[in-house]
Amino acid sequence: xxxxxFKAESKKLLDMMINSIYTHKEIxxxxxxxxxxxxxxxxxxxxxxDDKMGLAREDFFIRIDLDHDARTLTIxxxxxxxxxxxxxxxxxxxxxxxxxxxxxxxxxxxxxxIIGQFGVGFYSAFMVSDKVVVTxxxxxxxxxxxxxxxxxxxxxxxxxxKPDRGTEIVLYIKQDTEDDKYEDYLNQYTIAGLVRxxxxxxxxxxxxxxxxxxxxxxxxxEDENGNQIEPEYETITETRTLNSMxxxxxxxxxxxxxxxxxxxxxxxxxxxxxxxAVIHTKAEGQISYDALLYIPQKASFDYYxxxxxxxxxxYTNGVLIMDKxxxxxxxxxxxxxxxxxxxxxxxxxxxxMLQHDRQLKAIAQRLEKKIKSELLNMQKNDxxxxxxxxxxxxxxxKYGLYDSYGANAETLKDLVMFHSSSEDALVTxxxxxxxxxxxxxxxxxxxxxSLDKIDKLPQxxxxxxxxxxxxxxxxxxxxFALQVLHA
Length: 487
Hints:
Elements: H1 11-21, H2 27-48, E1 62-67, E2 72-77, H3 84-91, H4 98-104, E3 129-137, E4 144-149, E5 155-160, E6 166-173, H5 188-198, E7 206-215, E8 233-241, H6 258-269, E9 277-283, E10 289-295, E11 312-316, E12 319-325, E13 337-341, H7 358-381, H8 383-403, H9 409-412, E14 417-420, E15 425-428, H10 429-434, E16 445-447, H11 451-455, H12 458-465, E17 471-473, H13 478-485
Parallel strand pairs: 1-7, 11-13, 16-17
Antiparallel strand pairs: 1-2, 2-6, 3-4, 3-6, 4-5, 7-8, 9-10, 10-13, 11-12, 14-15, 14-17
């Protein structure tokens, strides 16, 4: 059989895509699952306009199969499938996307969330495999076709047998090297973990067989005479669904209980305590997104260290793009944890980075307002909870004033607090000013190592005797913060 050459690109380009575009090799699984989801979407949307097709959403699924001995990882779907011409067009031409073509030709249809757009995701398979075989049978046709390639040298397409519609992709996993342990991609638990990490919210079930070994019933125990029966073991295979399919942030607030919000937070962000506050918001319009944010009760052990990484998990159509997108949070709100899901982001071809940041900035600005609003609401309506929050994160808010030389004063002025001599508690500058005497021209404050030492200063006692309220500043940054706020 004559080998065909890739139409548009050379070995150099394919090598670049395999070795340079993707930061992490494990991304291949996300890309191939996303392609499988797209294939199902295409058939499902056709079925919406043709009742005679007899297709129901619950009939669709994606499967992953592992063969450790053959060193193969197989991803299959029962979607629309491809003809030989479509295999030639979609896989024989690098950077051509059938998903993008489908979306552009169906703009009138609503809710078409086709994930693949650039036509390069499929080739990420070559990062972990020496050979890729794609077998596909289009919906409504009897013929099936097989596309085979070992990389930039080219590919073959031949007719073959396949009992059911859809596409099957077989990856022949590379041998381990000193730098890369490809064997991991044949481990059922590694694959399950990657599915949960990147593709947990694909809207079709992703199924995989799990093999477990257990002792046979009636063995490994004593018989009626007290003799030990030699234990015998058997391997049990069970099919599990790896993904949860519906992300909590896409549900209506009325459908989610406080316990469900808290459970997701503790499981996702590894915290033992419930969050101090939950922000579940949705925006529609020029920039649409769903966001689920959490304000922790306590600072993590590494929060005030250089090792701490801020950022929100960024998804597009339920597929993880970036685990910690720092641009979604200002530094002074870096304690916030959560997720943002938007279909309106402009991604580069690897779906790992943003091509333009205009949409991201717009989302970040809205989230900033939401976070501030939630904190002000806590401060006014649940003061004890806010004081506990402030004990952990108040210093970070003051750093926000310092870092930008007052540029963030308008955002932070009502959130920052100082210890009051008359209240013997933390108060905002606004609260202090509202209690100033009629003839009081200045804000009185005193700095020191501790509240007790400040309280015993002669100047402090003199002002207190005259009935003036004094702000006690015990953090090194307090005096600067106060000056910025009162500028």
